[in-house]
Every structure is written in C-alpha cells, then in structure tokens.
Amino acid sequence: MTETVGSPAGAAGEPEAGAREGIRVQRVYTTEGVHPYDEVKWERRDVVMTNWRDGSVNFEQRGVEFPDFWSLNAVNIVTSKYFRGAVGTDERESSLRQLIDRVVKTYVAAGVEHGYFATDADAEIFEHELTWMLMHQVFSFNSPVWFNVGTSSRQQVSACFILSVDDTMESILDWYKEEGLIFKGGSGAGLNLSRIRSSRELLSSGGTASGPVSFMRGADASAGTIKSGGATRRAAKMVVLDVDHPDIEEFIETKAREEHKIRALRDAGFDMDLGGADSNSVQYQNANNSVRVSDEFMRAVESDGKFGLRARMTGEVLESVQARDLFRKMAHAAWECADPGIQYDDTINDWHTSPETGRITASNPCSEYMHLDNSSCNLASLNLMKFLRDDLTFDAELFEKAVEFVITAMDISISFADFPTESIGITTRKFRQLGIGYANLGALLMATGHAYDSDGGRALAAAITSLMTGTAYKRSAELAGVVGPYEGYARNAEAHQRVMRKHAAANDLVRTYHRNDATVHKLATKVWQDGLEIGARNGWRNAQASVLAPTGTIGLMMDCDTTGIEPDLALVKFKKLVGGGSMQIVNQTVPRALQALGYQDEQIEAVVEYIAEHGHVVDAPGLRPEHYEVFDCAMGERSIAPMGHVRMMAAVQPFISGAISKTVNMPEAATVEEVEQLYFEGWKLGLKALAIYRDNCKVGQPLSAGKGGKAEKEKEVEKQIEYRPVRKRLPKKRPSQTVSFTVGGAEGYLHAGSYPDDGLGEIFVKLGKQGSTLAGVMDAFSMSISVGLQYGIPLEFYVSKFQNLRFEPAGMTDDPDVRMASSVLDYLFRRLALDYLPYEKRAQLGIFTVDEREAQVNGTEVAPAEQPSEVHLDTLRSTVDYSKAEKSEDAPRAGSSTELLELRLGKAADAPLCMTCGTKMRPSGSCYLCEGCGSTSGCS
C-alpha cells in the first residue's frame, strides 16, 4: 500500500516550502530481498497460431518464456500482439520478463523524475509490486501501453479519444486527418457533429448546407481504408448527433437504409458478409451512431408532447415534431440494424467534474469514456477473480491496495505520454483523465453464488465498483498533495467537489444482502469519507478516474472468463491445448458456485458432468430449481433477460466517472416496443448510454438456423432401424439435368442425377481439359460428394460448407439467379440448392431465385417455384445413428466458445469472423473479441 508524505498542498496545488514531497510505498504482494521473477517457475513454449478456416500459419515464434501458470491462449496473445521487434531478429522480445520490464521500468523512471516517490526505496518497492501484479495477472494496462511504452515508437498510452468539429470546412478536414492518425495507431475516436449546420440552413454564400450526414460519408470511407489499424486492430469510431438537430431523422435512418441496400445486394448474389468482397460498397458501416437525448426530449416522449428541432446558427425552432414519433423511429432503426444507440445528455453532464471548461458532448467508440472534447483516456482493468479468497469472500482490503498501485501508475503515464494531436495532448495533460475498471465480474458473481440478475448480485457489483472509484479518487487527492491537482481543477473546484459528494451519497443508498457485499460496502463508505476530506484540502489530481471498458484483448491476457461488466457467455467453453488440439470444458466458476451454494463434492461432480453433456443446468441431478438463476448466462438454454443487463448497468453507473461499454442483446423475436422500453428505462434508471443488439438483425452476420432441427433429429433417432448409415444407390436409369456455367471467365458443366422421387443422388463436374490435374481433382471431388449423398448426408450440409468458399476463378457468372460467385464451388452448390432444396431451407442459407428476391424487395408474398420432395432424403436420414454421429470425428468442430455454443444451441450466433485468424468472435462490451488471436473489433 502507499501513503503520502509531506504537508497538504495549498490552493494552487503547490506543497508548502520545505515540505518533502513523495509517497511512501509498503509491500503488499512482494517479499523484501526476493525479486518477483524468482518466485515463479518459468518455462519455454512454442507459439504457432494458425487460421482456423484453412490451417495456414498466421504467426510463429518459438522458445518464448512465460510463467508455467499462464494459459496457452494468454501466451499466444501476448507473444503475437505485444512482443516488440521483428520476428526472427535479436531485437525481438522473447520473454514476459522483457515485456513487463520494458513497461514498468519506464513508469517508475517517470515517477522518480516527476517527484512521485519519497525515496528510491519506495520507487523500487513500487516497481516490484507492479511487476508482481502484472506477472500474476492481477491487472493489465490497456493495449497501447504494451504496444508503445519503452519502445522507439511514440509513447502513446491512451486507447480512447474524443475529437471535436466545428461548422467550417477547415475544421471538417481536420476531423478527417485527426481521426485517421488515431486509427493508424490502432485506437478509436468519437465526436459530436451537432455544431455542423443542417441541410435546411443556408450558407454565407447563399447556397444550402449539405448537413452533417453528408460529411459522415467521407469519414466513413477514411475509417474503412485505415481499418487494419497497422498491426494492432481495426479502426473504431463513434458519431453522435443531438436530438434537436434538424437532420436528426436522416441521421437516425442512415444505417437502416444501408441495411436495406445490403439485403438487396446480398440477395442479388453479392458477397455482403462482414469483410466480404462487396461490402465496401455500403456506406456508414465503420462507425457506431448514437443520438444524444435531453431530459426535455424524454419528458416530451413521456407526455406525448411536441419537441423543437433547432437551427445550429441561430437556435430558432425550424420544426416541431411529435417526440414519441421521433423516439419510435430511433427504436425502429435500432431494432432493424442496432444503430443508433442512445446517450442521455443531462445525466452525463450532471456527473461532469469540469463543466466550467466545457460540456461533455461525445464519447469514445465504445461509449465508456465521456469527457471534454479533444481529450483522451488511459485505461487499465483489474481481474476481480484475483481477489476472491478460498472461503469465497471478496478481499476488499487487498482490492483497495491494488487500486492504489494501479491508479498511481496510470497517472504517472500521463507525465511521459505522447498524443496524436497537440490539442488532445494539451487537454489531457490539463485534466489527466484516467479510466480504471475491472474484468471478470460475471465470473465473480457466479463463483460467489449470485445470479447476475439479482438484488444480491447487483449489490456486490455496486459495492465493488464504489470501492474502486472511491479508492481511485482518494489516491488522486493524495497525489494532488504531492504533485498538485490537475491544471483545470481551480476553475472547476466547486463542480468537482459536488460530483464527489454525489458519488458518496449514492454509495450510502446501496442496500447490502450478504457478508460479502456488506464488508465491501463498509470499506467503500470509509474510503469515500476519507477521500472527500483529503480532496477538500488538496483538490484532485484527475478530472476522471474510472470507466468500465470491454477489456477484450487484455481480458484474455489475464485469463479472465468474462469481460468487463458482462456475465458468462455460456457454462461450457472452448479451451486450446498445449501441443495442438482443443477440448470443451465446463467453466471453472461452476464448481465454486456450487460450493458457495452449499452442495457436497459428490453433488458438484454430478452437476458438472451433466453440464458437460447438456450445456445447461436445467434438470441437473440434485440441483435445486431456485439455484438455476445463478448459472444464467448471456446465451444458452437460460439466458439473462435484456432488462437484467440494464439493471446491472444501473446498479454500478453511479460509481463510475465515465460510463459503461455494454451492448444489451435482445432475442430475434423482440419488438420495437421492447426497444423503446429499454431506451426509456435506461433514462429513468440513470444510465449515461445504452446500445441494443437484436439477434440476426444485420445481414453481415450468420443466419439463425433455429432450434427446431434439434427436436426433429430426436424424432428421427426414435425411428432408427439400423445403427449405421446405409447407402442407397441410384437405379440404372435415373432423371438428370446438365447445366453449363461460366464463373469469372472459366467455363464448365454440372451434371446432376436424381432418384426417381427427385432426391439428388450424384453430381459430376466438367472443368478443365480432359486429363489435366484440375479435371482429375474435380472428378474425385464429384465422386466423394455423390457417395456422401447416397449415404444420406443432407444436401444443405454441403451447401452450408461450400457456399462463400473463396478462390480463383471467381467473379461474374452467366446465371441470372447467381450473378456473382466467390469460387466455382460457391457457384455449384448455390445452383444445386436452388434446384434441389425447398424454399424454407434456402431461406436459412440466404439463397434465392431472381423472382423470390424481386418479391422480397417489392414487399409481396414470396411464391417459390415448386420444389422437389424430400421423401427419399428423409428415408435415408432415418437410417443414421445421429447420437453416435454427433460424437464422431466427422462431427462439426468448434474453433471458439461461440462456435461451441452454436453447436449446443443448434443456431448461429450473431458474431463476425476474425479478420486475422478466421475464428468466430464473441461479444465483449459493445465490441467483439477473438479468442484465437486476441483481435478486437473496437478500441478496448
């Protein structure tokens, strides 16, 4: 732990003359005379990362050194993402020691230089404590720290940025440039476009302004071009518009209209999947959009009143609209395509510590950082499971000490950090915004026997969050007495103190239910009281202290089961094994939760075995139904209701300086009215921002296959007459058809033979010259598919595997139903699906004829052509032992926890494939995270 030395600072934040500055540091984790590296066992490992889809090697570095308790996944991600230097050279880092030393020694040297420590011994202890915590995965800095600190690169430590743009062409062009520089460094940025005059207002030259939405096109194209983010991540951006802007309806419907375009292009045969070859033709897809609503607007929605849209230059009301109608359009657009999200302006600014300097108008892309324009936020997150004792109580005292270490290091980083623009650097150094947060909350709640959507779970989460932010601000006040408050504090002192009192008052309102949350809350109350007293004397070193970020890549680095504030994704997860391969395991928090609930070892073992087999706890042997809710997850048999997520956000929001990165997932059957209710309740409950995602609302995601197929398979198993597949050969004389085709200039022929009852039984493909290698391979391929069909493998299985397969030749075809093909196989199996699968199955696969697509676009009832019967296929399927087939080596394999969950649920999850390694990503806050390589789709 640490304590300040020296007299309190004066009003200007300067220590009294003759007072010795610096903080004293006491050991918490380390032992005097023993270096942290000497306390653990180290081992060498080989890191070879492959693309899940094609097996190609994405990254390889052998002989890297890590502690033996680090998981394979954490080792892979840190080696591939954070080690610096060219692979294969002497300059390349090869040990976790080198990585931690590079960062920690830079922090400690800056702390010494800027007077943070009382003595050199205190600096050394601080170095050892940080080293121990990082090595043991107690916390992690955000990714830019690992990328940049201690290297020859610019020392950029911040992941989140807010920009500004004014109503001038120079400012708009500066926006494009500054955003591009931030994207180039792999970070994200957000801004509010409401200062730009609307398309209903005149220019000084006499013409009509084009409006902010038009300028969004150029910025969107720029983000799409720089989306790789160098070697780190894709670009992420947020665009905000105030609800009283005259162009608000156009802004709301922007992405929904593009979604209609995506559907039409996809149905015309274009590749519109996320990252697809033709997806770049669609606009506005590289940003999250949010509407900034005021209390005045929300009250008008509540009373069904009118609301005025105001000119940007004069403030006059250009049009009065029905507030509920506008609110309904927001909800409908979000229901349709997940955008726009909503930000509650008056709530945000009511908790603003620096209002005299300027209002908070925007956020970073994930919506957790909200402060002044042209500013940045440095993030770090603690692993909450590291504070859970063996007796399943939360170690509040240890957590407090860890927060003190982390927030001190975070503040030191601003002293040496570089920034992408001069204005961002000036604002950040003046206000020193920090974003301490945590990960693994969902795992902690389950391990302690709390349901995520429960009063007890919310009380524990609120108490922990309050203790974290209270400790961070207390340490900030102590640092202000050593090195002075932030430069903008004097002007904003009254407002800052008012917000601190609001946090403390909210803490007093927390109701506790269990010794865990009661103990944490008691310490949090004391910390807030002490912090207010110290802050009244010294001021505070930081204008902002905490946020709840997605903790994507760093969450994997810390071997966290859950990210940020999220619950567990599912009870079973995918685990990679050293030496290759993978296995399905039951989350380790499940046995601890059963222990916390009072179950005996034999009962725990039986429940875990049941979960491993079924993927859920319903009807698990010996498990009481009242305990089912403890094991509810984000997805699965028992998924947490959308309002459960909102209530958890509301429980912790009063104890967060910024906001919370989280998307509330809704089922596909959710209605527009339910979206309205969530957005309205978010305002009532005091949230700062809220975003929703309805399953399968976006075209660039996999289509749901539904859960009905599982019941049908169970019925089919009952009808089995043999316990092995039976081949049904085609008769000597059978109906057939031949289709000539052209794909990307390559000509060929497809011959398809059927059973007399119209079930497809064989194919032959003629491509290439007779006797050529290509012709031989296609003959062998055709024979393999034909035999599979005759053994009863459903055609739709082959179609799902081979459609969208990408290789040359590819391009335009001469088939009006399949205008574009990503390969010959992509074309062939789309054509076979059109000829031999019923409409319902093709709809699930997204394959339609020209007439069917036209009917959909026109909004008329789809009337598909007569389809062949499936009597023969059903007969063949009844001879297959599905219970054994699902466990065979030929069964579908999972490459991530999301894909494993898909196999369990019998439906596709709405998650994109990783653009680096091809693994299906999983949700992480309002972004997506790849468990395979650590890539994220956002800025965390």
TrEMBL record:
Top-level taxonomic group: Bacteria
Boundaries of every TSCPD domain copy: 731-835
Enzyme class: oxidoreductase
Family to which this protein belongs: Belongs to the ribonucleoside diphosphate reductase class-2 family.
Enzyme Commission number: 1.17.4.1
Catalytic activity: a 2'-deoxyribonucleoside 5'-diphosphate + [thioredoxin]-disulfide + H2O = a ribonucleoside 5'-diphosphate + [thioredoxin]-dithiol
Name of protein: Vitamin B12-dependent ribonucleotide reductase
Xref: InterPro entries: RdRp_reductase_class-2, RNR_2_N, RNR_lg_C, RNR_NrdJ/NrdZ, TSCPD_dom
Keywords from the named record: Cobalamin, Cobalt, Disulfide bond, DNA synthesis, Nucleotide-binding, Oxidoreductase
Reported function: Catalyzes the reduction of ribonucleotides to deoxyribonucleotides. May function to provide a pool of deoxyribonucleotide precursors for DNA repair during oxygen limitation and/or for immediate growth after restoration of oxygen.
Domain Ribonucleotide reductase large subunit C-terminal: 158-693
CDD domains, A to Z: RNR_II_dimer
GO molecular function, one term: cobalamin binding
Cofactor(s) this protein requires: adenosylcob(III)alamin
GO annotation terms (biological process): DNA biosynthetic process
Ribonucleotide reductase class II vitamin B12-dependent N-terminal domain span: 47-137
